Amino acid sequence: MAQTIQGIRGMNDVLPQESSRWQFFEQVTREWLAAYGYSQIRMPIVESTHLFIRGVGEHTDIVEKEMYAFEDSLNGEKLTLRPEGTAGCVRACIEHGLLYNQTQRLWYTGPMFRHERPQKGRYRQFHQMGIEAFGFSTPDVDAEVIVMLADLWPRLGLSGMSLELNSLGDIEERAAHRAKLIQYLEGYIDILDEDSKRRLYTNPLRVLDTKNPDLQEMAENAPQLIDFLGEASKTHFETVKALLDDAGIAYTLNPRLVRGLDYYNRTVFEWTTTQLGAQSTVAAGGRYDGLVEQLGGKPCPAVGFAIGIERLMLLLEINEVAIPAQLPDAYVVHQGEAAARNAFTVARQLRAAGLNVIYHGGSGSFKSQFKKADQSGARFAVVIGEGEVASQTVNLKTLIGEQQGKQEIVPQDQLAQVIRSI
Ligand code: HAM
């Protein structure tokens, strides 16, 4: 026997017993996205590496160490498997002129790739559903996208999600804070670990994100960005909070919430859970008013978020959320050559009438076929033997519910109608 080939570490198959959960999520979110007026956009999985260096930020963990970047072996182009969707979405909008004098509310879904250390809730290929709202500078839209997620959780049958909120201010405010922060961190240069030293001048905010217990006190007492916000940023943030209060949505202000991507300004947020251990963030996003211009478009304010679908799948599983099953209406059982041919036709007729039907492939004893019919979860077994072929009828047997075991003879041309009526 040939040696088997394994899947790639951190990249998962979604098996049939799990896929109904994914479909449930897709169905619920489609209705939810429509309720908020979002249209779908589909971008390629591969983009130019420059897009992410410029978009996500040269000194982020994603760009520094997690990108699946490679050269196209045919023409040497530098390409990357997208680590996230925002940069590609902005690229597509600029390229196709979607942002001229108009607003856009867009959503996308699909696989993203980050070379991280795999663990529960963290994978190298994972899936996001993201939304991006373009052309809105006012805080009502920040609040709307946050409220939108609050509205999603009960639709999915989930509760107990927490919202963390921060404002990163605007570029000048960040620059002033950054200068003060570097000065502060330089005072601790002797105790900073290698990672923090490396980030001190490239991405000092990320130094505060350190998990190193020896650095916690230093991080907690560092100058906070929130104290550097100017009037406009402050008012913007106050309005977001007021709208959340009006909507009855609780939140925790987290001045250390800085996000791992460079494009954000003003509002940033994360929806978290205590049920997933270390990978606690289920959805995250914020405002990014500078990115469109940074990627070559005319200035255009924007705000958005992405949901980590694998993490949501884990939550649905842990909370035993009941997933509506797509069970077949009928399983067609047959015996003998003529019956098999007739059953093949009957199955097609039932499907044409809108029913979900499994035709028993091949042959087998009635007993083994009925066993398969039971396992399929079908409501009915449609039984065709020689006698039924001759009389153009079927024996319709109820497999589940109160009428379980009931059998009746039904003419083939009335079968779909009878099944529907029960
Ligand atoms: P992000 O925080 O990098 O933001 O990712 C969003 C979500 O994707 C995370 O909260 C998490 O649920 C999920 N996620 C991230 N990495 C992994 C992984 N390795 N394995 C499993 N799930 C993961 C963004 O990507 C931004 N583009 C969001 C955004 C859209 N901001 C504005 N618009």
TrEMBL record:
Keywords tagged on the record: Aminoacyl-tRNA synthetase, ATP-binding, Cytoplasm, Ligase, Nucleotide-binding, Protein biosynthesis
The keyword Ligase is assigned to this record: yes
GO molecular function: ATP binding; histidine-tRNA ligase activity
Pfam families: HGTP_anticodon (PF03129), tRNA-synt_His (PF13393)
Gene Ontology annotations for the cellular component aspect, listed alphabetically: cytoplasm
Positions of L-histidine binding: 84-86, 114, 128, 132, 259, 263-264
Top-level taxonomic group: Bacteria
Assembly: Homodimer.
Enzyme Commission no: 6.1.1.21
Major site of localization recorded for this protein: cytoplasm
Aminoacyl-transfer RNA synthetases class-II family profile domain location: 1-324
Localisation: Cytoplasm
Catalytic activity: tRNA(His) + L-histidine + ATP = L-histidyl-tRNA(His) + AMP + diphosphate + H(+)
Family: Belongs to the class-II aminoacyl-tRNA synthetase family.
GO biological process: histidyl-tRNA aminoacylation
Top enzyme class: ligase
InterPro entries assigned to the protein according to its UniProt record, in alphabetical order: aa-tRNA-synth_II (IPR006195), aa-tRNA-synth_II/BPL/LPL (IPR045864), Anticodon-bd (IPR004154), Anticodon-bd_dom_sf (IPR036621), His-tRNA-ligase (IPR015807), HisRS-like_core (IPR041715), HisRS/HisZ (IPR004516), HisRS_anticodon (IPR033656)
Stated name of the protein: Histidine--tRNA ligase
